Amino acid sequence: MLPYDRIRALLRRHDASFHGDAPADHDRAAAEERFGRLLDAARERFGPAARPGYGQDVSSYGAVVVPAEDAGTEGPLEVLMSNYGPFVAAWTLAGPAPARRETPGAEALDRLDGVCAALDCVHVPVELLQEEYDGVVDLYGDRAWAAFAETLGEDSPFFASSEEDEEEDEEAVPLRWTDRYFDYV
């Protein structure tokens, strides 16, 4: 696995300014072929029970799910391929739905490194994906709101707060790298 600083640099380099499930120059046919190779490599290293899964309105092309008994993990191993760059993420799904994402054990990670080597892709560890996103895309509109707010006077009704606003602010969850590269957009 590459050092975290190098992976962060690659994430930033592939972070297109387009907000959507794939960059404007996304080659769907190439992604389909690469995902097929990911599935084949996962089956070779984890066993034939690995199965594909696809989402909708997500920034990943798809996932390969490996049963826990084949992956040697406590829960099923989910391996996702991003639409943004050569990135693969993997986590063990643990607990009831919605499942918690946990770092797979050393054996599963070693096999995953073999999968990534076969595909010339970059494995992005769960810990790095959980870091706060500081890339170019304003996925939740926070930067746009801040720029708009700067144009308003202090007595603007937009700045009037209420108890509901304060409760909403407390529940805000910062955007993570996983949101940009593998989750819903």
Q: Unreliable stretches, pLDDT < 50, 5 or more residues?
A: none
Helix content: 40-55%
Structural class: alpha+beta
- Give the beta-strand count: 6
Strand content: 15-25%
Global Rg: 19 Å
Shape: elongated
> How do the SSEs run, as a string of H and E?
HHEEHEEEHEHHHH
Head-to-tail CA distance between termini: 27 Å
Q: What is the makeup of the main sheet?
A: 6 strands, mixed
Overall pLDDT: 82
* Total of helices: 8
Describe what you observe in this structure:
Strands 1, 2, 3, 4, 5 and 6 form a six-stranded mixed β-sheet that branches. The protein is α+β, with helices and mostly antiparallel strands. The longest helix is centred in the first third of the chain and has 19 residues, at 28-46. 40% of the residues lie in helices and 16% in strands.
Structure characteristics:
185 residues; 8 helices; 6-stranded mixed beta sheet; alpha+beta
Q: What is this structure's SSE topology?
A:
Elements lengths: L3 H10 L14 H19 L4 E3 L6 E7 L1 H4 L5 E6 L4 E8 L5 E3 L3 H14 L2 E2 L2 H4 L12 H9 L12 H9 L5 H5 L4
Parallel strand pairs: 4-6
Antiparallel strand pairs: 1-2, 2-3, 3-4, 4-5
Helix pairs in contact: 2-4
Question: How do you describe this structure in short?
Answer:
This protein is an alpha+beta fold and 185 residues long. The chain is 40% helix and 16% strand.
